[in-house]
Amino acid sequence: MVKPVARSPNVGMLKLFLGLFVTVLVLEMGLRFGSFVTHLFFEHRNLQSIRQKGTYRVMCLGECTTLGQYPRFLEKILNSSNKGIRFKVIDRGMIAKTADILSRLQVNIDKYQPDMVIVMMGINEPGGRSSGGVLSTPKTILLFRSLKIYKLAMSLGSHIMAKSEGKQFRQGIASSKVSDSNLNNDSVNKDLVQIRKEQEEFAAEERIYKDAIERNPDNYSAYMRLGWFYKDQGKLSEAERIYNKGIELNPSSDFAYMQLGFLYKDQGKFPQAERFFNKIVELNPYNYPAYVELGWLYSKQGEYTRAQQIYKYAIELDSNRDPAYMQLSWLYKEQGEFSKSEQVLKDAIERNPGNDIFYRGLAEIYNEVGNYKLSNIYSGKVINLGIEYCSTAAKDNYRELKHILDERNIKLVCVQYPMRNIEPLKRIFKEQAGDMVFVDNERVFKDAVKKEGFKKYFNDMFAGDFGHCTDKGNMLLAETISIAILLEVANN
Q1: Which among 157, 151, 158 is positioned nearest to 32, based on CA atoms?
Q2: Sign of the alpha-carbon dihedral angle for 150, 154, 159, 164
Q3: pTM of the model
Q4: How far is 329 from 341, CA to CA, in rounded Å?
Q5: Is residue 132 left, alpha or beta, with left meaning phi > 0 and alpha meaning psi from -120 to 50?
Q6: What number does CATH give the domain 254-321?
Q7: What is the CATH architecture assignment of 140-251?
Q8: Degrees (nearest 5) of the Cα angle 183, 185, 189?
């Protein structure tokens, strides 16, 4: 009797892996073919969009330098161009990092159906503002991430997690309160924004918070989210009323005071805003952001000595954070006290030698006083530190964003921040840069600042060589972007 030959375990494993490989290969080929067909479909749709809808839709992505900033001027400029096209500008800026912006891209595309996407992002990345030692992603991992099947799996996973988190969040807000410490975390704000974006009708979201309040009239967390919702919708009087109700419910929490402070600040009601930020530091003497906001409010009201004192106190409170240094330096510079402005940044560099924001600030000071030699030296120090336009993670997210838009045949326009050189932004895309639209805001802003002063175009100097734009700055930014858009539309 012939004994059966035992199958080698290695042969079985080999067949298993071979089968898996073939399966993955077939799925990958199918997904790529489907992507090609989808690309053709969206190309046809976009070519017909102006004729069918009569509107060319431009979606703006970015951080706090986009949200509520230049997009509000861009639409008006585009529609006054007399090109026979009606433009619609959609502001999807968010106070977040590039990964958060990228995570919302597919949802925003599906919801707003843009013909073009404008993006200006990267300044909020940790690696973009200090040397940091960010490691590059291994090529093998990047190759694996480029597979369609990997992206499909990640997309499905994110969708399932988002559904689950959204359900848990809605259940949680209806039945419980959130601690004050959690209310001061950025993650809560992101949860709120995430829920708002997932609702097709804003009324449905409003109903969630109102139902929670009806079930529990003392639900402080629901009031805070409802106030945020109203503010986001531009219903400022409703937001004010809700935040004041939150203070009645919990007068010892600084969160509602903070939101009211920002609400009044955004409306230019500086004395009212000051009152609430002062209340915050009374409740919590270690609240660094509140001191920085108070310094800004004092400076806007011409109380420069008080502003200087408050910034110096904030620096003593936390010498590792940059906002107070930058605001104090900016304040001295705007008063013409360049030597004091210079010294603040040199002190900051001594304590934080790896933070590029201080080197950029010094370069800008020397440039403004005409000391171009020192300006070039400090600009060179930024390069020598190995500090680029943005972090490795941000670069990867830029490339992934372009890949997604290419598949949908949506034109990408990359905007460089005011005062910054365009070349580092172009280097992110290497050989693809020739097929893209870039908006250079270096020379136009430097010339404008040299002629009329920094304060005419920026409210602060949080990034070292630029800050949040004034209305005039946002208008100039919108004008440079509009030129690129109109040229692109005319050429197609």
Answers
A1: 151
A2: positive
A3: 0.59
A4: 4
A5: left
A6: 1.25.40.10
A7: Alpha Horseshoe (1.25)
A8: 75
Question: What Rg, from alpha-carbon coordinates, does the chain have?
Answer: 26
Does an H or E element contain 132, and which? none
DSSP class per residue in 420-456: S-SHHHHHTTGGGGGGSEEE--HHHHHHHHHHH-GGG
Q: Does domain 324-386 have CATH number 1.10.10.10?
A: no
pLDDT per position in the chain (492 positions), as tens?
444 445 455 666 666 667 666 665 666 566 555 544 443 443 444 344 444 456 899 999 999 899 889 999 999 999 998 777 899 999 999 878 888 899 989 988 988 899 999 999 988 775 444 333 333 334 444 444 445 554 455 444 444 443 443 444 444 544 444 444 444 444 444 444 434 444 445 677 788 888 889 999 999 988 988 988 888 777 889 999 999 999 999 998 888 999 999 999 988 899 999 999 999 999 999 999 999 999 999 999 999 999 999 999 999 999 988 889 999 999 998 888 999 999 999 999 999 887 888 888 898 899 888 898 998 888 878 766 655 556 778 888 999 999 999 999 999 999 999 988 888 888 888 777 667 899 999 999 999 988 998 889 998 877 878 889 999 999 999 999 999 999 988 877
53-129+391-460+469-491 fold: Rossmann fold (3.40.50)
Least Cα distance to 108 among 385, 481, 405, 445 occurs for: 405
Domain boundaries, the chain: 53-129+391-460+469-491, 140-251, 254-321, 324-386
Longest dimension (CA), the chain: 104
Cβ distance 422 to 442 under 8 Å?
A: yes
**How many angstroms separate the CA atoms of 86 and 102, rounded?**
27
Q: Which two tokens stand for residue 426?
A: 């172009």
**Residue 265: partners with Cβ closer than 8 Å, 6 or more residues away:** 273, 293, 297
Q: Which of 164, 224, 240 is nearest to 192 (CA)?
A: 224
Evaluate whether 16 touches 22 at the Cβ level (below 8 Å): no
Same topology, domains 53-129+391-460+469-491 and 324-386? Answer is no
319 neighbors 351 (Cβ within 8 angstroms): yes
Contact in structure between 170 and 221 (CB atoms under 8 Å):
no
